[in-house]
Amino acid sequence: MPTAVVDRAGVPYQDREYWVSVLLMCEAAVACICCPIFGYIVDVSPTRQFPYLLGLILLGASMVLLSIAHTMNVFIVARLLQGGATAMVAVAGLALLTDSVAFDNLGQVIGYLGSSIALGFLLGPLLGGLIYDAAGYQAVFAMAFAIVGIDLLMRIAVIEKKVARQWLHEDSDSTHSHPASRPSRYNTFGNPSGPADSMPSTSKKPALLLIARQPRVLISSWALLVQGLLYSAFDATIPVFVESRFHWGPLGAGLTFLPSALTALFEPYFGHLSDRYGARKITVTGFTLLTIPLASLRFVEQNTPAHIALLLTLLTLTGLLINLCIPALYVETQQVLEDMEREQPGLFGKKGAVAQAFGVQTMAQFLGLFVGPLWGGFVEFQFGWKNMSWTLALLAGLTAIPMLWLSDDGHVVTMAERERLVNGPGA
Asked: From the record, what ranges are coiled-coil (predicted)?
């Protein structure tokens, strides 16, 4: 993008960072707005597959516009569509994933999803840069369209559990008699194959409002907002900092993020820890320890090997501690839904509210991605690197306090309890 906006849109070289930031903020803003809307669409759709494909259509449209763009207006429209595609894939993908795995293992599986996203972010700039240098701008989109085509085939090939049960003509009696074909955990949200349909108690209030009023949902969403803010604040400030302090170019700035990005590959293990020990212990520990590397960034001052090593180490620790918390935060909101449905079966109706819950969280995350460049860039420009460092550390420390109200391992619904919820008291 920095090269493309100069070569194709005629942006002055000295303004390229500004316009790239604008494009990133456009994508984050649209994704933030669309997340709760798409969450509702995903929940009311007969299957998760249709909105999942819709996200791919938006992505394809954005790729077409980017490939033909010669003005900043077209670049902006393309990034707006890409923000919508990002929101749809994030919400629908997480909902589809939770439909397919046991809740007791959800944190670890979300960790695998986080690692996959990290690999995408790592490979995208690398492959895009190599192909751009070797074959030009359009060759990059030839690769992109090939990937979209493969993605389309994989999404069409997805067979959801409830669709498979319809194909097998399983009635509720046969479903209860075969443990291997039991309905997913979200049948407790009023699926016709569960008992919630016989005890209708659907709230007249919108599910999104019910979810957003839950303190634990607000707390976990705030933590995800802070996570997005930290990432985007560094995206906005690190390239400028290493250029002015170490005299590094774009390649050096990009490589600076590599160690911290690689820490996302540990998310499956971090998810396993959250499944075992609960969200409270993981998040309190993560955000409390996060204050140390953030505050220590102020000591990076000179262009020496020791200070360069210190910067890379601190950024790596920051990435590690942020990724430690992410699976636990996503699972926490699903745990809230479990608790609400257990107290009032059928509260969210036949369709449930899984995707809407993820919509709230991803909205908070994208809001953080939008605010981060404003926070990091403004504080660093007006008050300097050291002041930006301690303000981010203070934010992380304050975020650790409400984490004490998240669920502990003793509050997790066991598999036996979930079976009773699905099959009735006599199960």
From this structure: none
pLDDT digits (tens, 9 = 90+) for 341-382: 888 888 888 778 899 999 999 999 999 989 988 888 788 878
The tokens describing 367, both together, are 């809001």
Which residues does 68 contact at the CB level (< 8 Å), separation at least 6? Answer: 74
Name the phi and psi angles at 348, rounded to 5. Answer: -100, 10
CB 142 within 8 A of CB 303: no
Do 325 and 286 form a contact (C-beta atoms < 8 A)? yes
Q: In the predicted model, is pLDDT for residue 422 greater than 70? A: no
Q: What is the pLDDT of residue 169?
A: 64
Assess contact for 378 and 259: CB atoms under 8 A: no
Give CA angle at 402 (401, 403), nearest 5°: 90
Closest CA to 392 of 218, 240, 253, 238: 238
The sign of the dihedral angle between the CA atoms of 133, 138, 144, 149 is: negative
One-letter amino acid at 207 equals A
Whether residue 24 contacts residue 16, with contact meaning beta carbons closer than 8 Å, is answered with no
User: Among residues 163, 392, 66, 114, which one has the least CA distance to residue 270?
Assistant: 114
Domains of the chain: 2-423 (1.20.1250.20)
Distance CA 423, CA 172 (A): 10
Residue environment code for 252-282, b if the CB has 16+ CB neighbours within 10 A, otherwise e: ebbebbeebbbbbbbbbebbbbbbebbbbbb
Give the burial class of 165: count Cβ atoms within 10 A of its Cβ; 0-12 exposed, 13-18 middle, 19 or more buried.
Answer: middle
- Report how far residue 234's alpha carbon sits from residue 240's, in angstroms, rounded to the nearest whole number: 10
In this predicted model, what pLDDT tens digit does every residue of 66-108 receive, in sequence order?
999 999 999 999 999 999 998 998 898 888 888 888 888 889 9
Joined together, the tokens standing for residue 285 give 């520990």
Secondary structure (DSSP) of 244-313: HHS---HHHHHHHTHHHHHGGGGHHHHHHHHHHH-HHHHHHHHHHHHHHHHHHGGG--SSSHHHHHHHHH
Q: What are the tens digits of pLDDT across the range 13-66?
A: 878 778 877 888 899 999 999 999 999 999 988 888 888 888 888 999 999 999
Contact 348, 207 (CB under 8 A): yes
At 45, which helix (H) or strand (E)? none
Rounded distance between C-alpha atoms, residue 60 and residue 91, angstroms: 18
